[in-house]
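Hi everyone, sorry if this is the wrong subforum. Our group has a chain we'd like a structural model of before ordering constructs, and none of us has done structure prediction before. Sequence below.
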Amino acid sequence: MTALPCPGANAETEGLPCIWMRGGTSKGGYFLASDLPTDPTVRDDLLLRIMGTPDPRQINGMGAATSLTSKVAVVSPSRRPGVDVDYLFLQLGVDRPTVSDRQNCGNILAGVGPFALEAGLVTATGDNATVRIHQVNSDSTATASFPIRDGRPVYAGDTSIDGVPGTAAPVTLTFEDIAGSVTTALFPTGRVRDHIDGIDITCVDNGMPVIVAIAASYGLTGYEPPTDLAADAALLEHVDTVRRKAAQLMGLGDVSGSSVPKTVLLAPARDGGLVCTRSFIPVQPHTAIGVFAAISAATAIMTPGAVGYALAAGLPPGPRRVDVEHPSGHLLIDIDLDTTVAPPLARSAGVVRTARKLFAGKAFPRPE
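Answer:
Right subforum, don't worry. Here is the predicted structure as tokens:
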């Protein structure tokens, strides 16, 4: 019997089917798992060559020279009851040949439902589609709802999100069971506050492991432009030092080559929100803030005794909408956190994002 060719074996000459999409404030390649090699090492090498990594400009690939545009979604039909598709998120490095599956991405998630419809993994009728998504990275479930017409995603609309020019159709994301997504608990150190190298921090994992600290503890106002933060080598080194030590406390081990945990610095709101943020991926300043980073930071802000709780003026427990300021504007998240029990119970979270199909066809990796 003739052996079947490995998926992606002839990608250099024949290309690899994909759709490039913007999801929230990120963009990347969306691939069917069946089109990619099953061996993770071979798959990752192929995706790095498609993205143009390693190269700070990614000039020989599809990447756009930032971590926000060097992302991949691998999607497949799900065998789980009540779930439509499985979604594996991969964060690719830019100047280093790294591929990480240790975290979710709520922005790229915004494109998974529309992609599943585009790829024929699901069908829908009427004016709205609802796609149940298993997030492989965190073994949790998300539901994406978005408008459709004649069974196809509608991308045009009047919803705007800060950090993205123009408007688009809304994608409503609701998250379940995301507490302890990568670690073992909502507060993985077993405490709501820790102290490392003169910095008070809260380590929280509500969809993504995040270190929350007050910007002033790093000698910052919390309102600095990301470009100024990126130019401060001493600051970035301090952020990374605390990050690595906090990761040990969180049970994540050596994270020198990992994109998690991330860091979110807090300052008093100054544009009508609840809190102002500056976030780092993992040490490079974000021009906005990631969905799960915002959810995790909001979880800290709502928890008595945690870093940032005083900034929220003691929000009562229960479901509420939290307005998170970031360098590009605002991110509104819905969060249901019960702090009347110990440890606090994260029931659910949600956010409205947008997504848009940018390109559909085949990507060609650079030669090995």
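For your construct planning: Helices lie at 11-14, 40-51, 106-109, 112-118, 226-230, 233-249, 291-301. Residues 184 and 251 are 8 Å apart (CA to CA).
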